[in-house]
Design goal:
Layout (H helix, E strand, L loop, with lengths): L2 H29 L11 H5 L5 E2 L2 E2 H18 L1 H30 L4 H22 L3 H7 L1
Antiparallel strand pairs: 1-2
Helix pairs in contact: 1-3, 1-5, 3-4, 4-5
Length: 144
């Protein structure tokens, strides 16, 4: 297996896990129920904070759309697929870092689901960027 294939498979798994987490958070938002939360119990405080929406759109829904977009780009593959996957993951990473900052320093509560999502998006940013920087199979075969 080539490094690119292994990275693609890893990104597929990470994006599916992200869809699960963001899908759950989107569901609880629209269902109006409290999230299941681990020790510390800051999930409800974070989920109902002013930072839980961007321009009226739930951040969880934006995350879900991002993970689905990354998954779609991975399925399409090719150079544009790699570019889109990496770009969306890098933007998602930056936004997740901002939201984590807000959790810690503004909201003063931690949502464990949000930490998992931020971790998944960070890993996706690393994997998809690494994959983008690898020489493509087409380019490698044309050099031989």
């Amino acid at each position: 297996m080539t490094p690119g294939r292994g990275l693609r498979r890893a990104a597929l798994v990470l994006s599916l896990l992200g869809i699960g987490v963001a899908g759950y958070l989107t569901y609880i938002h629209y269902a109006g129920i409290e999230p299941i939360c681990g020790p510390g119990g800051g999930c409800e405080k974070v989920q109902t904070s002013e930072y839980s929406k961007l321009a009226g759109i739930p951040v969880a829904l934006l995350g879900l759309i991002s993970y689905i977009t990354i998954l779609g780009a991975l399925i399409v593959d090719g150079e544009w697929g790699r570019i889109v996957a990496a770009a969306v993951a890098l933007i998602g990473f930056g936004f997740s870092a901002y939201l984590t900052y807000r959790e810690i320093f503004t909201i003063e509560a931690i949502c464990h689901w949000c930490v998992v999502s931020a971790t998944l998006m960070t890993l996706l940013a690393i994997v998809t960027t690494w994959r983008l920087l690898l020489p493509s199979a087409d380019a490698a075969s044309s050099r031989t």
